[in-house]
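Deliverable D4.2, example record:
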Amino acid sequence: MVAFKRGSSKLKPVGLFIGRFQPFHYGHLSAVKFALTEVKHLYILVGSSQKSHERNNPFTAGERIVMIRNALLDEKIDTSRYLIIPIPDAVGHSVWTAFIDQVVLDYDLVLSSDRLTLQLFREKGVRAIEPPLKDRSQFSATEVRRRIMHGEDWESLVPRAVAEVVKPIIRKGRFKGLE
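Output generated by the structure prediction step:
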């Protein structure tokens, strides 16, 4: 279990940003930057961490964590303000939120673009919001994966640091047979 230290009451709250990040793209980066205007400390939860090598989940949790870390380092975002944690799926939704409560000790705000995630945390009495979405038609992991599979330009949708993680994975042939 990990927890950020809380200082005086003047500090902004602690937040969770939850996503699968398959892969991390400019929309996610924009959401992280937004989240850090709302909270002092941010847990970035990499959902479905047990899944990889699938059409909708081609990357491993480790690969996604490296993508996020490297992209945020390139943006010079203070590493003391965030922590990246892999979170596996659970059998039931209430079990999943209870598991998150065991992993993250204290938080005040949940950010996600997933409607179910937002609903589950609101039902628990936690403030849950959807961050402003940056041109969702382009900046979506589904679109990035589609472009990779069809040999179209995908690199313009992701930070350079993410492309550097993804290119060797493509060269090794992981996307062949996922269509």
